[in-house]
Amino acid sequence: MVAPLINIFRTKEEAFYFKNSYMNNHYDFSGVHLLPNNAMAYVQVTDTPNGINLEDWTVNIVDLCKETKVDITDYFMVEVLTNARNGEPQFYWSLTNVPFDFGYNMQYLEITQTIGETFYSTPFLLTNEESEKVSQFHYKEKRADTYQSISFKAWYRSTDKKTELTTYYETSTRHTVTKAIKTNVIETYKTDKVSIDSLIQLSDVLESPYLYVNTIRASLFQAIDLPKPKDRENYGQMDINLSFKKGDSLFGLADYNGQDYNGIDYKV
């Protein structure tokens, strides 16, 4: 399975940890950017050390700096139970239609069992601020049955066209002929300035064999080129070149009945 961009741990120390260089003094951790009232569920798989099980839970979203809490239990769901490669129990969980906007303040999940442990997620944004810069990615491995889904600060920048040519000598005319053998329309997406760790996580998502970007089937056209640090910062920005299969939508073709209207599969 592709490692989650929002993972869940038993301690805050684990959830908030990042590997740092003594040279850095400028930081950014805002790559994962969820949108409020999002009808398409955000789905992540746990990769919790020693495994995880949940029963009778309460979920709060907590401000990373202020430690203020908001109960979002009604919008959190355990979707599918699974196992890690080492056999430890894990699960896919989701957030759907969370009606709160927390602005530019980083948030994390605090998941408390009625009888048992408390777990903490890695931080993320949950806001409509700069929503025009946000794209949603659905992805999975070939053997996985459940798509993961996440929103990230990456937006459409431009369209380009790449053509592969072949050249051969035509004996009948004694001319050298150049012919196009393959043409690709490429869309370039640009990320915001986010941590290099977040860009590495996003690159793993983009390398998934099953990838949809804003519900349309996509694949990497070129290998990811991660930025190199230029100064005392932990962040960077990168371009992503994607090839889209326009006729392949995550939700298939809508049947346009009354239940579809304004639904996630209407006019796809």
How would you describe this structure to a colleague?
The chain has 268 residues and is mainly β. A hairpin with a 4-residue loop joins strand 8 and strand 9 (118-121). It has one domain (8-249). The protein is built from two helices and 18 strands. Strands 11-12-13-18-16-15 form a six-stranded antiparallel barrel.
What's the short story on this structure?
The protein is mostly beta strands and 268 residues long. The protein has one domain.
Distance between the termini: 28 Å
**Largest sheet report:** 6 strands, antiparallel, barrel
Mind telling me the C-alpha Rg? Answer: 22 Å
- DSSP strand count: 18
Low-confidence stretches: 253-268
Mean pLDDT across every amino acid position: 85
Shape estimate: elongated
Secondary structure: helix percent: under 10%
Overall tally of domains: 1
Order of helices and strands: EHEEEEEEEEEEEEEHEEEE
Q: Helix- and strand-based class?
A: mainly beta
Q: Determine the number of helices (DSSP H or I, runs of at least 4 residues).
A: 2
Q: Strands across the major sheet, in which order?
A: 11-12-13-18-16-15
Beta fraction: 35-45%
